[in-house]
Amino acid sequence: MMKLKELGLLAVMATILFWIVVLICIFVLPLTVSLGAAYFAVTFVLGSFSPNTIEDIALAKMKSISPLAKFATKHRAPLVMAFVLPMSLVFDTFFYLRTQFIVRSNSAPDMHDQRVEEVQRQVKQWIADGSQRPMATARPGWLVISPKYMTYKAGVHKVKVDMYDVLELDEEAMTVRVEPCVSMGQLSHVLTAKGYTIPVLPEMDDLTVGGLICGCGIESSSHLYGLFQATCTQFEIVGADGELHRASEDENPELFRAIPWSYGSLGFLVSATIRIVPAKKFVKLTYTPFDDAAAYCKYFEEQSKLPEGEAALFVEGLVYSKDRAVIMTGNMVDEVGDDAPLNAIGSFWKPWFFKHVESLLTGMGGANDGAEVVEYLPLRDYYHRHTRSIFWEAQDIIPIGNHPLFRLLFGWMMPPKVSFLKLTQTEALHRMYKEQHVIQDMLVPINKLQLSIEKFDEQYQLYPLWLCPMKLFDVPGFVQPKIDEHMFVDIGAYGVPESARRGEFDGEASGKVVEAFVAEHKGFQMLYADSYLSRDEFRSMFDHTLLDKLRKATKAERAFPEPFAKVCHKAGSTADAATGKAKKTN
Ligand SMILES: Cc1cc2nc3c(=O)[nH]c(=O)nc-3n(C[C@H](O)[C@H](O)[C@H](O)COP(=O)(O)OP(=O)(O)OC[C@H]3O[C@@H](n4cnc5c(N)ncnc54)[C@H](O)[C@@H]3O)c2cc1C
Fold first, then answer.
1. What region, left, alpha or beta, does residue 551 occupy, with left being phi > 0 and alpha being psi -120 to 50 degrees?
2. What is the CATH number of domain 108-278?
3. Which residue, by CA, sits nearest to atom 28 of ligand 1?
């Protein structure tokens, strides 16, 4: 039962939300609808702002399409500006207020126990009903950030795991205990307000703890701390038996090692305990531009491999063409020194971060034209530096999004939520994203960086590329080093390749070439995006020893689809994917 104080707080929050929605309807909606209408009118009369937009590519590939679908495809950008931006604002406001309510009423721990019992009840009911179809979370495909359509969801028994709260901050043990649907934006808000952060804070606001643990998560501090999962000290899952299982280094250590990358194939994660570290207010960031591939690859590797104490806390690279890149190294600091300016890059009127970095390149004619630059960034601005522009995907969705006037008037509403963007995808756009668009992160040994850039250039010619170093610890589990090199680099390619704009790109063929290259060099694919690996290739890239053992021991084989069935195209039909009876292709 809610206490009087909680009811009062809830009433205040509900009132605030009500008035915010009213204000958005009165003041914001007319503004965004006018913007959408103006953009529509201009592009209708004059044509697209840039040649071969993603909408043009989508339409070029559709043989037959109804006039209405064609119209909705061609004019998605104004639709996004008019409606998706204010919808995202309402959703974010609701969530922000909800988090504030939970934190202020301190009601999360009590409610957590009830929510765990509810997950257990659903699993036990599934057992009582004869365990017909395997289970997966009920989280709908449109809500997750991954661009993939979760076809397997149609064939599974869905279990609601609606758990969105930060449970406990333990300042003595230096840990934070959270529920699986807590997002990175939510966590960084709560923790930085108390002077803490987590060692690896993946930067898109909407990424969730559950997805980053059961899938994979990385950030520019991963060369010191490893993947997101490596910073966790305890997991709690509800297994196939409907019981709650706790796993840590000391308690069920094998289960603890098997949960990362398990894609829900062992049970439902209901809580995670993550290490915290003291946060400082700013990041002092040094940008080093290069116009030579060998030089930036060497520098990036050196910086990533410096011993702890000497290494910068953050190392990241943005590659703008095969030869030109900016490598960034940074450390947290308490104050802004007088040796460099403060750049609050997260402010809505500021240029998108990747555009700002690009302006520092040699020979680009930018303000700096190639010299090393130092800046201070507020900590949260640094963490979420790629959020406003969804890395660089937003430039194709809202082509005028980085225009100074747009930023000034509408930048505070950016970015549109990836979930809502998915709802605006027509069939033509869906096919375009599947076949002509690349979203891919590959983890390759860092000594193969230059070779990998050449391979990405040959197959995708897609820039910028994201470089993020990552240490792989030698512990049993799904992903472990197969060679002496333990430092890896995540190479991320996001967007539409130039060849797709010319109508010459085959996403599947290129994807397979890159996958084969990564496998040959003992690397790994980050599985949230397209994977064309066959089951055998998948099982050879990822070590299934521990996962298979535990799935058998805990009777999870019938209860949950195996990871391959969830993440790979070759898993076959929806029904096959759900039951794990995937096509055995080579
Ligand atoms: C635009 C974009 C930007 C991205 N940016 C970054 C980035 O900056 N850094 C980074 O590291 N990654 C990034 N990613 C990839 C991201 O790490 C993965 O998508 C990751 O899996 C988190 O996504 P999610 O929170 O939507 O999880 P989901 O996609 O919902 O979950 C991933 C998997 O985990 C399983 N799972 C989730 N919750 C539970 C649970 N409670 N119990 C059991 N199983 C569960 C699900 O079965 C699912 O298969 C990005 C992806 C996109 C599309």
1. alpha
2. 3.30.465.10
3. 211
